[in-house]
Amino acid sequence: MPCSTSINDTSTNLESQLALFKIRIYVYIQGCSLEHSFFQVLMSNAPALESIFISRVAFHEPLSVDPATDQMTVAGFRVPSEEGRAPEDSIKMNMEASVIKSMILHSIAGLQLADILRFASNLPYLSLFNCDIGKHSSKDSDALLDHESLTGASGFQSIRDICLEGCPSKDTTKILQGAQRSLSDFGLTSSPVTEFLVQALVGGQHAVTLRRVMFRNVDLVDCEDAFHFILCSLSGLELLVVWGGVMVCKPMLLEQTRWVCSNLNYLELKPQCDRGGESYSVEESQNAFMKQVGSLKKLRRLIFEEQSGDGDTLGFAPEKSLDLLGTMPCLETARLGLQASRGLTIEHAKLILKKWPKLRRLNGVPVTENTAFVDYMREHGPDIKVRRYLHEP
Fold first, then answer.
1. Residues 140, 171: contact at Cβ < 8 Å?
2. Which residues of 109-118 are buried (b: 16+ CB within 10 A; e: fewer)?
3. Among 79, 179, 321, 329, which is 20 to 30 Å from 365 by CA?
4. According to the lineage, what is the superkingdom (predicted)?
5. Could you tell me whether strands 77-78 and 71-74 are parallel, antiparallel, or unpaired per DSSP bridges?
6. Rounded CA gap, 138 and 135, in Å?
């Protein structure tokens, strides 16, 4: 019999599925309406459940009591209690005995963040927590969370992978503070980033255990140097991806503090070297930034994000980057802000072939404007694909 249950209709279908929950280890629910405390139904009826995926679900109505039996009901289902024990105590015992390891909530409505965390923080084996908060975390929810400490909660002792979307900064900070043991993956989307959040991310055990960090469309509120501090603090980091954000390249900061992530193999971000009104020059900024990147000798993928169009959006001379990076023994894929380049030469091609021996793809190169460079690369490095666009075959 299958070990998973998929529900994609209204809540009336859940009653027919309830008996099957007892033997299921994976539940996928989407596009329906559930009562506010449906998670408690799972605790009472799905002892073998290991993974929950809920998408496009609207939650409504609080937990209620069936007047005929004086028992708690959720979406028409009874929440059983042991003799002499209140239903709430039985639910807590079920949660403590739960083997749920993965919890993914996407595009949900009607639940507050504090309610979600109150549930998740009591799951002792939870290792993956992915939650799209969206517009549904109200000020009331934030206030509730302020009075709760997640540090030491059983559900955050095993957590390894956290991904949040639309989460208030102070709540993200509390979640990070609660997951102090073995966090290896962290992702944040459409959320503010503050100095306190960065300190929680790079502090404690996270500095040693974090391997992969991703930001997408985040707002750096009071910490424009956040990405630099991450690279300076997370010694075990293997991947850093920043989409829709800018790393301001300050020469003095880059020269004073060394990036410690010597095992980094994937770096994708957008450096900014030409911010106006600064005391340093574009050249100084580019030199300091590229020297730091060039020190990461295990890099396999290096991507400088650019805006749409063919303009030079990085603020520095892209051809010079090839010299500044130096020898990159593991580099396989690169996109270095070359899309505005008109001066790539055969000497640049020779440098790449000599110092980047494992390169297999060079993206963002204006092919028709640099024919001598491209022809040399294709003749002497036939295994290397030189492309204008990132996703070009």
1. no
2. eebbbbbbbb
3. 329
4. Eukaryota
5. antiparallel
6. 8
Closest CA to 212 of 177, 188, 246, 195: 188
Residue type, 266: Y
Total residues belonging to the chain: 393
The answer for residues whose C-beta is within 8 angstroms of residue 276's C-beta and 6 or more apart is none
Listing from the earlier edge strand, what are the strands of the sheet with 77-78? Answer: 64-66, 71-74, 77-78
Instruction: Write the single-letter amino acid at 136.
Output: H
Q: Considering only CA atoms, give the Rg of the chain.
A: 26
CA distance 58 to 137: 14
- Across the chain, which has 393 residues, the per-10-residue mean pLDDT values are 50 53 74 77 77 86 47 40 45 65 89 81 88 59 51 76 90 83 89 91 87 94 91 96 90 92 95 78 89 95 70 60 89 83 86 95 88 94 85 63
The CA distance from 347 to 129, in Å, is 49
CB 96 within 8 A of CB 124: yes
C-alpha to C-alpha distance for 179 and 156, rounded to whole angstroms: 5
Structure tokens at 107: 């595009």
Task: Find tokens 């998929």 and name the residue.
Answer: 6
- Tell me which amino acid residue 380 is: H
Instruction: Let me know if 106 is exposed, middle or buried by CB neighbors in 10 A (0-12, 13-18, 19+).
Output: middle
| Cα gap 155→157, rounded to integer Å | 6
Give residues with Cβ within 8 angstroms of 378, minimum separation 6: 384, 386
Given the structure tokens 């790449």, which residue do they identify?
352
Alpha-carbon gap, residue 333 to 266, rounded angstroms: 10
